Amino acid sequence: IIDLYGGRRDLAAGIVRCVGAPADRFAEDALRILRALRFTAKLGFTLEPATAAAALAARDTLRTVSAERLYAELDGLLLAPGAGKTLAQYGEILGGVVPEILPCIGCTQPGRWHCYDVWQHSAAAVAALDLRGQDTRGVRVLCWATFLHDIAKPQCRSVGADGAAHFKGHNQRGAVQARTILRRLKAPGYLIDGVTGLIAIHDAPVPAGDIAIVKSLNRYGTVFLHRLCALKYADLDAHADTPEVKARRDEVAAFEARMT
Predict the structure, then answer these.
(1) In a designed cystine with 134, which of 61, 95, 138, 258 is the match (CB 3.0 to 4.6 A)?
(2) How many angstroms separate the Cα of 28 from the Cα of each of 35, 93, 254?
(3) What is the model's pLDDT at position 180?
């Protein structure tokens, strides 16, 4: 085997590295920045430090790439098994594709419910997402909805008299913002509608009681509500491990069991 660039060594170490000078490779085609991240998510690898630094420095050049190419790479990243870890590590680089991510990084949340800032929480939710039983469209809708579910929290953040952060209205505002992002990326219509529908009510209480559940089924349908439960589980599993969070998860489980 002739290995001019140490590829076998990098494969064994789980490293994605540009051939030659990373800045030159990204200058040739900015989409390589996003492709490198997709490889890390698909393979469970990490970026070699010089490659990561060059990707961060060049992230704004991603704006020169067509929306269709950006969507395809980001879609592949989000559907990859290591998506959550990649999001957690490289959010600042991904801000070149979705700049709305950047205010989420370091945006703190109340400790009674949360153990992460908004961005790390979103990444942890993507990692926690259980896609079993979902069809192809359901998988894609859930990955994107979980990725974007709290995207509007920084704009909705306020601090109460108790000193705790609150995010009133982030569901509805997040749905609007997610629609803007997905349209900008020229995502399919079914994805835009499915993602924004879930985000708009993802943090609302689940219906309690048979009459309320029947009304919810009539309004949204079984498929949508099963997706909503999957999003809620992932969201809650990325919260702090507290009795309050466990109680909310139990409510979702009871709703889903009664719904079926």
Answers:
(1) 138
(2) 13, 18, 53
(3) 98
